[in-house]
Design goal:
This protein has helices at about 15-25, 75-80, 125-135; strands at about 10-15, 35, 40-45, 50-55, 65-70, 90, 95-100, 100-105, 110-115, 120-125. It is α+β, with helices and mostly antiparallel strands.
Length: about 140
């Protein structure tokens, strides 16, 4: 079972042209493939495929839709702010952001929305977890 298996992230968009511009202008990403019939957009993000597809239900989820992992949260938050990204502020039990950034002990995170109101998390894990996430060590090993 699952001899050849791949997982993809799936993000909805009400306006594919607007989403495509946001991905280009904010994340420096252009589609690696666009389906001619459906106009679905496929992006490579750190080796993972992200499918952006058209639906009227985009932006209705109130949870994190995609998680991006970085080795330098401050650098990337600053770069995204330069491109007009506004970070969410949260104040929940166990999660409080200050100037858009949460200190979660051994990791830090920030959340923002794309042009379609999908919530992105940007996280900087501990150095040990970063090594695992970036492929230096198997998570099950």
């Amino acid at each position: 079972m699952f001899e050849k298996l791949m997982a993809t992230a799936v993000l909805p968009a009400t306006d594919l042209d607007r989403a495509k511009r946001w991905w280009h202008d904010v994340l420096d990403r252009d589609p690696v493939y666009t389906d001619a019939e459906s106009q679905n957009l496929f992006y490579d993000v750190g080796g993972a495929v992200v499918l952006v597809y058209r639906t009227d239900f985009a932006g209705t989820a109130k949870n994190t839709a995609i998680n991006l992992v970085t080795d330098d949260l401050d650098r990337d938050v600053a770069a995204l702010r330069e491109r007009g990204v506004e970070f969410h502020e949260y104040d929940f039990p166990g999660l409080k952001t200050v100037d858009g950034i949460a200190d979660l002990g051994s990791e830090r995170g920030a959340w923002f929305s794309d042009s379609e109101e999908n919530i992105f998390a940007l996280g900087q894990p501990s150095p040990e977890m970063m090594e695992r996430v970036m492929g230096g060590a198997r998570a099950d090993g």
